[in-house]
Design brief:
Blueprint: E1 2-4, H1 6-10, E2 20-22, E3 27-32, H2 47-66, E4 70-80, E5 89-99, E6 103-114, E7 120-133
Antiparallel strand pairs: 1-2, 3-5, 4-7, 5-6, 6-7
Length: 145
């Protein structure tokens, strides 16, 4: 994990905030803050909203590799580790786990930056998804080498 000080991120040399521990073996593919419409009856962010964001984030690297249209064919694993709250800034980090003839499997980790007054980062979700490259007719096509 890389330590990224929030001083460096914000450009505020006078801030005294603990370092953020984020993965250094993955690429940041999406960053988003949930809105009030994304809150469930318990005051947490809907799991389905998080799943949709993970699917979007998970497709970024495969789209670059496949160089064309692709579809989600499987959510192999999805783990909610902690609830997500209003005000959390979510960062989605992806890593390609496997490239097959027509499919690409990706691992996505989601981290929440919480409590700006005493900033800390927690891993809230982890998922593995598989995408398949398709042609104009929706049939699987070979991944370019």
């Amino acid at each position: 994990m890389a330590e990224i000080s929030s001083d460096a991120r914000s450009g505020d040399a006078g801030a005294s905030i603990a370092p953020l521990h984020l993965p250094d073996d993955r690429q940041l593919v999406l960053r988003v803050m949930p809105m009030p419409a994304d809150v469930n009856g318990n005051g947490d962010i809907f799991g389905g909203w998080i799943m949709a964001q993970v699917d979007l984030a998970g497709a970024v690297l495969p789209a670059r590799i496949a160089k064309g249209r692709l579809v989600t064919v499987a959510v192999n694993q999805f783990i909610f580790k902690q609830p997500v709250s209003m005000g959390d800034l979510l960062s989605f980090y992806a890593k390609v786990e496997r490239i097959g003839r027509t499919s690409i499997t990706v691992n996505v980790e989601v981290y929440a930056e919480r409590n700006p007054a005493n900033l800390h980062v927690v891993k809230v979700t982890e998922a593995n998804l598989t995408y398949v490259a398709i042609d104009r007719d929706g049939k699987p096509r070979l991944i370019p080498t």
